[in-house]
């Protein structure tokens, strides 16, 4: 595949502010590359202070129009946008794969599920309602709880799901009646350009949605400090989330953040090992492990441990690495070079702490893609708690495997505190209903799945506890984070 062929398939990159597409901006530009080949895909304009202030100003004007648009009309526009996403899914998926690296089938699934997310949020817009409360004093006609849109939102998203993550925030915020300034990741801008175009083509007013890229710290500071912005919604790291939450608190702005995880998997003594392996290998190495809810720490009952470790590592080693546009690719590259260095650091640190690298643990040169950012699917056995991989999210194709003797022991290891403060997703496999309910209560995570890995569904709230974030996305709960709740009470006027 010639680099120029890739560039020709890639859309022109631009900012969208106040109805205008800007192909140059005061912040300069940066190159966008295919992580599988290193080929140049395009040049991305970067917003400076001028463009960021213009985007926030446009959001203020757009909010006044959009908040008064009837919920049914907002629903219709968003559903048309979702329908356009489905029509354009093959082309959008190709762009997503080119800039992010995941296999094309995963990319198209992401686009279609993102359309479903927007559809669900659009329907929730029709069901935003308050309630009345009976008065406790005579002479009061009514008490009512009302909801209204919060205001313009700054939505900041990461590169691992370049359509899904913006769709979660746009679907909920726009359905609620908020305007949005969207800043996706600079590594994967083309997907966001196409997503925004779908919503504009569906009839969304131009000033209701702006799209900006830029130096992340400057963008976030400028938008948070702008008086028009009422809320910041972030998908990113724990460190960045804490910094932005503090900034929002000082500025008196709302904040919600989905900040990553370090998901445990408990494989109980009564689990069917074939089923566990069939589900666990694709779940672990999907998107090259660059998934916030990715299973990472596998705690396996002693009688299954040796068999699980051998078969899991063997299956991981057989995965076909390649360009995401190749039909037989099962795992693509990491998205940028710093992930390669970080993955190697995790592996070297685990080895230094006495862990055993069962398979992988190194960069891979894929034939014909020698400049690609490929890291071998990696399985680490018996890493101690002192190892970095047991305390920090690796965010890559790396899993650890440990044996346990009692369920209490496994639960304690999964919930390790304070060394491991994450609490996004947790998984377990058991045939016993009582054990399943016990695990559902005992595992310290915002989302717990028993006998499968499907915690992220458009109708369900997505979010974590502890250091994994604040607030929810998707489902009816996701929309409510973009609403103000007010009390209205009425008594007759008497002379």
Structure description:
With 495 residues, this protein is of the alpha/beta class. It folds into two domains: 3-260 and 471-484, Aldehyde Dehydrogenase, Chain A, domain 1; 263-421 and 425-456, Aldehyde Dehydrogenase, Chain A, domain 2 (3-Layer(aba) Sandwich). Helices cover 39% and strands 21% of the residues. It contains 15 helices and 22 strands. It has helices at residues 3-8, 49-66, 71-87, 89-100, 104-125, 164-176, 189-201, 216-225, 238-251, 273-285, 302-318, 337-352, 407-414, 433-442, 475-480; strands spanning 15-17, 20-22, 29-33, 40-45, 131-133, 142-149, 153-156, 180-183, 209-211, 231-235, 254-258, 263-267, 295-301, 356-359, 363-366, 369-375, 378-381, 398-404, 425-429, 447-450, 469-470, 483-490. Strands 14-17-18-13-12-19-20 form a seven-stranded mixed β-sheet, sandwiched between helices. It has a six-stranded mixed β-sheet with strand order 9-8-7-10-11-21, with helices on both faces. A three-stranded antiparallel β-sheet has the order 5-6-22, with no helix packed on it. Strand 3 (29-33) and strand 4 (40-45) form a beta hairpin. Helix 3 (71-87) packs antiparallel against helix 5 (104-125), helix 4 (89-100) packs across helix 5 and helix 8 packs parallel to helix 9. The longest helix is centred in the first third of the chain and has 22 residues, at 104-125. The termini are far apart. 53% of the residues are buried.
